[in-house]
Amino acid sequence: MSTPTVPLAEILSQGDEVVTGQVVDSNAAWLAEKLTHMGFLVVRHTSVGDRLADLVQAFTEASGRADVVVCSGGLGPTEDDLTAEAIAQAFGRPLALDEVALADLIAKYERFRRVMPEVNRKQAWLPEGSQRLDNDWGTAPGFAVEAGRAWMAFMPGVPREMKRMFEHRVVPLIAERFHLLPAHLVTFRTTGCGESNLQEMLTGLALPEGVVLAFRTKLPENHVKLRFPASMPASGMAAVVDEVGGRLGRHLFTIEGAESLELSGAFDTAGGDLAARVARQLLAREATLATAESCTGGRVAVSCTLHSGSSAWFLEGAVTYSNAAKVRQLGVPEALLEAHGAVSEPVARAMAEGIRERAGATYGLSTTGIAGPTGATPDKPVGTVHIALATPSGTEHRELHLSGERDRIQILAASAALDLLRRHLA
């Protein structure tokens, strides 16, 4: 029995701002992930500037290689928005006024009590024979054409508009044309461990045929991804997930995409970031948290309060950069600061214990350190960070030596603090 052919997809982004680096092409990354999950094999990302000849060539070539081509950008009203004209030239489809698109554009401006600029009429001229993709989230309509071997969809470059148009207009049309067998993606979210270390942990792992292993860094996390073919039974997937999860050990804090699998290991499969995992642990114990931060500037508290329902377990956070603030808000003894300095184990412990007591929380979590680029001394270089966790049974402490710029050090230190709590609760 022959293996079904996986349809090929390409992604094309238009705009000088993309090719010159003025704008990061987040659209392509988002589309690639969506198309992969749908069951396509994404084989190419192409970025093209605002030059008609280059666009004509790019569209022509893509139409002969891929089954689906998804494009973003170039649908605006200005002279450098050339997508529709390029399609007209590439495939012999003269532009024609779409009266419905024009009426929709005029109505949108009228809703805001404005007169549509004449230049916007250009957006209603679509390639002959194309299918209009209505844009309920912006002005520019999109369109779709069949050319060569490909079905091609064109959407605005504004990410908010593009994402909604893809989900509400493009996906249903793709579903009509392709019988897709979506791959099953499982993501292992880890922290406190580098990619090379994760690779070593998985050395010798025997994966069944068709299973793809990949790594991704998303500071402060590292992800291990397994993509299973649609034909693989759940029991086979569960066995692989159990083995990988076991190898990753204490660095693994949650697994995404495994909710329906019957795993033998005691893994958290609810997904989300590290703060979401900590939230579930605290809620299960009916426990609460308060934070005291110096070098991280409130990043720990922000991570916690980004989640809805955090008021059920997060009581308060104090950002105490100065020694006076540590004394006043946390009750850190002045003598302790004079003897050891703010960046020290005794002060980190006192900060955690002080915020726990004053907030009436089950746990108090603290950070103090040197995020740089100034403030370092020979015995306390940039990246020296102390974190402490005050608990009902005592106080735990960790000393970190982090590298990189200030932002990176703050992110990693805040994550390490939350991970100290996560491991204690586990």
In short:
The chain has helices at 16-19, 26-38, 52-65, 83-91, 99-111, 159-177, 195-201, 234-248, 274-285, 299-305, 323-330, 334-340, 345-359, 406-425; strands at residues 8-14, 41-48, 68-72, 95-97, 125-127, 131-133, 142-147, 150-155, 184-191, 212-218, 221-228, 252-256, 289-293, 314-319, 363-369, 384-391, 394-401.
Please, could you describe this protein's structure?
This protein is of the alpha/beta class. The protein has 3 domains: 8-177, Molybdenum Cofactor Biosythetic Enzyme, Chain A, CATH 3.40.980; 184-256, Alpha-Beta Plaits (2-Layer Sandwich), CATH 3.30.70; 274-425, Maf protein (Alpha-Beta Complex). The chain is 38% helix and 24% strand. The protein is built from 14 helices and 17 strands. It has helices spanning 16-19, 26-38, 52-65, 83-91, 99-111, 159-177, 195-201, 234-248, 274-285, 299-305, 323-330, 334-340, 345-359, 406-425, and strands at 8-14, 41-48, 68-72, 95-97, 125-127, 131-133, 142-147, 150-155, 184-191, 212-218, 221-228, 252-256, 289-293, 314-319, 363-369, 384-391, 394-401. A 6-stranded mixed sheet has the order 2-1-3-8-7-6, with helices on both faces. α3 (52-65) crosses α4 (83-91). The longest helix has 20 residues, at 406-425.
